[in-house]
Predict the 3D structure of the following.
Amino acid sequence: MKFINIIALTLVIIGAINWLLVGLFEFNLVDAIFGSLSILARIIYILVGVAGLWCIALYSKIAD
């Protein structure tokens, strides 16, 4: 379970950095690397979204 938490947090951090770049510079790193809405970019977006949902469960671990 710890491994999944580490992967999820890493993906959330990648997503956060991408949103920072979009907000500051209007530069989407995922699209730049994988192409605008290519299948690989969509997979990355899906994985980041699932990781974000997974990290919701980490709130309970913080409260303990």
